[in-house]
Design brief:
This protein has about 450 residues and is an all-alpha fold. It has 16 helices and no strands. The chain has one domain.
Amino acid sequence: MNLKKLLSNKDSILNKGFASTLIKILGALSSYGLSFLIARKFGAEGNGVFALFMTYTVILSTFFYLGLDFFLVKRVSVLMVESRFKEVQYLYKKILKAYVAPASGLILLAGIILYVQFDELLFLLGAIGIMVNVFIDINSAVFRGLKMAEWFSFFTQFSKYFITIVLFLLPILSEEGSKNAVIFPYVISLILNGAFSFFVLKNKLDKLKAGENKIDVKSDSILSIIKISKDFFFASVLIITLVWVDFILIDFFLNEEDAGIYSIALKLATLVSFGFTAFNAFLAPRISEIHVQGNIKKLQKVLTENFALVLPMLLIPFCTIIFFHDQLLGFFGDEFRPGWKVLLLLASGQLINGIFGPVSLLLQMTNHQKLFQKILVWTFVLKLSLAFLFVNFWGIEGIAFASFLALSLWTVIGSFFVYKKVGVYSWFSFAEAKKLLTQLGK
């Protein structure tokens, strides 16, 4: 199989991965554009306010979707392989009606009560953000399970930032001097994004034809679904908290200006993981599907192909950051230049995480989520302990150093257990790499 054949196959990891990567790049450009606009109008402090708002809404959203995102990716991908299309539709509607709708009502009610009690609009905006985030994540998980990685990337990484930029440019929504002016456009964008994702997903599900297999779709109650998804819940919370806890520590120990500098450094560091995370959007259902088939050799082949395609996408942006970090930070303003050490540390962590492959997906999609949870718990404890210690000596650089050590550690340990438990290398095997090079050379 040569490169042309790989590209011509619409379901290939190369085709899907590049489509998802392109959308992710557009999303990143939109995210950087938004950060640039905020930095120019409100400075590092404005970026800090925005980063802290996103931190608390994202973490709390993760609590409320109870691991249903990973559950849906895994379940939907299996149902699609078995042509049980009606059950996919039933499962989605069941979760929306029996859980998302009532949970959203409670979240909104809590936001209204806090707003009235403390006379602080951020509580209400936060509640709306959490509520809509849960809805978007559920929709995106179904897209991912359907192997529609392009739509998954579109709604999770592009549209919300692009729409926010458009709204931010409207004078009525970005009044100078107002702290909420940074938040209003983002919340409105989430609402529009949520509505659009629903209509697109509904259209895709309506087009699915009934499978030949007779099924009992009433066998899954919402309680049984949540009982299964709770295995993914703990890991999801830990993953999100590991990423965003840095901003909580900055909020407690430092200030909004430091949060703004750290936010820009983190955004730039994620340049390194563009290809890695974009290909992961397609890999998750593929891993689950192949694992159900019990084809270990096929799984190793897919992982090796993934490594070969992602490696250049890791190295090129990493080298760019190494040599041009001052220019990249200075683009957002001179006040961001002191964050160069933070940028290099975070970028190094992203590089190591990407090189060792989709460790978290492999453990969670192959029924080893409890082992993954244990690794995350110890990593979280280590990161928190180191961050508490280092922040007193080195400020945001200390937090970034703790983040680098924790991310590197759990990736390496996780990769080891992937080999022990699943029987594959999370990055590549020399045998499969040799076969791949031979095929591409033909």
